[in-house]
């Protein structure tokens, strides 16, 4: 299968490398410097090099599948180009948060939505380290694309060391990932610590639990199940830093609006823990 991966951050390079073992993968990037080094050096994942072609996003060509690994903050400009081209190409969106759900409704292409629980660290423009085992969960955006997602895309990209699991319930899948992200990402970003510190530090663990409970109340999820899921992801990616940690370090806009901000916007009740951590992250963004 010819697969185009749009975005070469940590997840984009990780996905490109893993899929290149069985597929013809092209990684689309914004900067020519990154395009050149990936074409020259390949993508280095841990201690192994994977030969992956790279092109500028402006030169997007026909693919059998497009996997969009851009952050929420970079998605708007890409959607305009995607909406005007490749009308029949299936697109799989892998983002944190839920802000993209309303944005992609205008696309006419077959749309799939995914979540990624791997812990991945970007080392350079062509190097990534896999810091925590996880899975890709995938669901259909609409009922009309369910067969495509379940019978064609999911089994084709699934692999022994790259598990891809189809989920029937799209919103349940997204809500679970939203709670996990809204707990781990802002805590680790505020304190600039690895994911595992969310559990090993008793004070951070208390904050994490309270955030989990509030998120579950808004989304009508079982808090015991979700607290186990939060702990599971934090343990499996214990040595990894969340993407929000690096956004704060680099002075970039974070994805807090798509996570805790999303929960605050849809809630009809007070969420004191989410409101506090939301404003703390927004304050860090401008410091």
UniProtKB/TrEMBL annotation:
<comment type="function">
    <text>Catalyzes the NADPH-dependent reduction of ketopantoate into pantoic acid.</text>
</comment>
<dbReference type="GO" id="GO:0008677">
    <property type="term" value="F:2-dehydropantoate 2-reductase activity"/>
</dbReference>
<keyword id="KW-0521">NADP</keyword>
<protein>
    <recommendedName>
        <fullName>2-dehydropantoate 2-reductase</fullName>
        <ecNumber>1.1.1.169</ecNumber>
    </recommendedName>
</protein>
<comment type="pathway">
    <text>Cofactor biosynthesis; (R)-pantothenate biosynthesis; (R)-pantoate from 3-methyl-2-oxobutanoate: step 2/2.</text>
</comment>
<dbReference type="InterPro" id="IPR013328">
    <property type="entry name" value="6PGD_dom2"/>
</dbReference>
<dbReference type="GO" id="GO:0050661">
    <property type="term" value="F:NADP binding"/>
</dbReference>
<feature type="domain" description="Ketopantoate reductase N-terminal">
    <location>
        <begin position="3"/>
        <end position="142"/>
    </location>
</feature>
<comment type="similarity">
    <text>Belongs to the ketopantoate reductase family.</text>
</comment>
<dbReference type="Pfam" id="PF08546">
    <property type="entry name" value="ApbA_C"/>
</dbReference>
<dbReference type="Pfam" id="PF02558">
    <property type="entry name" value="ApbA"/>
</dbReference>
<dbReference type="InterPro" id="IPR036291">
    <property type="entry name" value="NAD(P)-bd_dom_sf"/>
</dbReference>
<dbReference type="InterPro" id="IPR003710">
    <property type="entry name" value="ApbA"/>
</dbReference>
<dbReference type="GO" id="GO:0015940">
    <property type="term" value="P:pantothenate biosynthetic process"/>
</dbReference>
<feature type="domain" description="Ketopantoate reductase C-terminal">
    <location>
        <begin position="169"/>
        <end position="285"/>
    </location>
</feature>
<dbReference type="InterPro" id="IPR013752">
    <property type="entry name" value="KPA_reductase"/>
</dbReference>
<keyword id="KW-0566">Pantothenate biosynthesis</keyword>
<dbReference type="InterPro" id="IPR013332">
    <property type="entry name" value="KPR_N"/>
</dbReference>
<dbReference type="InterPro" id="IPR008927">
    <property type="entry name" value="6-PGluconate_DH-like_C_sf"/>
</dbReference>
<keyword id="KW-0560">Oxidoreductase</keyword>
<dbReference type="GO" id="GO:0005737">
    <property type="term" value="C:cytoplasm"/>
</dbReference>
<dbReference type="InterPro" id="IPR050838">
    <property type="entry name" value="Ketopantoate_reductase"/>
</dbReference>
